[in-house]
Amino acid sequence: MDMGLIVISFVIFLALAFDFINGFHDTANAIATSVSTRALTPRRAIILASVMNFVGALAFTGVAKTIGGSIADPAQLEFGVEIVAAALISAIIWNLVTWWFGIPSSSSHALIGALAGGVYAGAGMDALNMAGFKNIVIALIVSPILAFAIGYIIMTILKWIFGRRSPHSVNKGFRSMQIITAAFQSFTHGTNDAQKAMGIITFALIAGGFQSSGDMEIQTWVKFSAATAMALGTAVGGWKIIKTMGTKIFKIEPINGFAADFSAASVIMGATFIGLPVSTTHAITSSILGVGSAKRFSAVKWGVAGRIIITWFITIPICAGLAILIFKLIDLIFLR
Question: CA quadruple 89, 215, 271, 133: dihedral positive or negative?
């Protein structure tokens, strides 16, 4: 078998493995609030999230095209396939480490930081499209701030509308509505996060000469492969992170869960429409913090929130550094 075909097959496997891990790593984004409030049983929540992730993954391709072409031009990279391999290995390692410790870090930050580090290691700083990379980083920074603000505003409005009603009747009604927002949240997760695996596969295909240079259309088999990997990963579930997001930030009631899910899903959907990758983890965590602050500022466990936020800031540089090291190893062992 041709060595190039073997290498690209391995990289595609890594990309789908990343997508699978992203699925169980980020399952909490869609279902943590609905499970913690008992709007859905864990089994039903995971089935719902898996199905809606799959549907969402097939609905859009704008984010995939951004990932595939905005950080660097894959057609201009001599070792583009090896760069993608280093980036994926780095992102997978970071995802598994943070999953093991129950930290809701960002798979998006991990992949984007790792890809930037891999390009730098394999082709130098000049190969990085700094304008495209800057736009992606800005979107990653602005989206959690926006999610926090929207969560705070929506929860404040709901408090004003339902503040004098019986908490039992209010929560009973919103427990049912949470099923809808959980489905919406899962759908938007698929529209944005699964696109990243599609984009990185397309990047590798162009770099390896298996897709025409300048053609950023996402092939049908790539869409279905990434959508399936994401859905299967979601079905596995990430219970450590679900516990962190559903119980350790503040005590979530159905009305809070509805507000948080709707806020985060709206931000993610908006980013998907304009083709920008955002962190679904950051969006839902920030919306939970915003909702909790609107409910009662002291109700939020800011120590836990602080540790999560620190992880947000360190993910990109750590994954970039790790990708540089991994590419150097690949270069030393296979390319020389």
Answer: positive
Burial 134-173 (b: 16+ CB within 10 A, else e): eebeebbeebbebbbebbbebbbebeeebeeeeeeebbee
**Position with higher pLDDT, 30 vs 127:** 127
Contact at 8 Å (CB) between 118 and 84?
A: yes
pLDDT at 329: 96
What residues contact residue 300 under an 8 Å CB cut-off, 6+ apart? 249, 250, 289, 292, 293
Closest CA to 53 of 268, 240, 255, 252: 268
The pTM for the full model equals 0.91
Surface-to-core class of residue 204, CB atoms within 10 Å of its CB (0-12 exposed, 13-18 middle, 19+ buried): buried
The region of weakest confidence among 6-15, 171-180, 242-251, 255-264 is 242-251
Tell me the H-state helices in 163-279.
167-207, 220-236, 239-243, 254-273
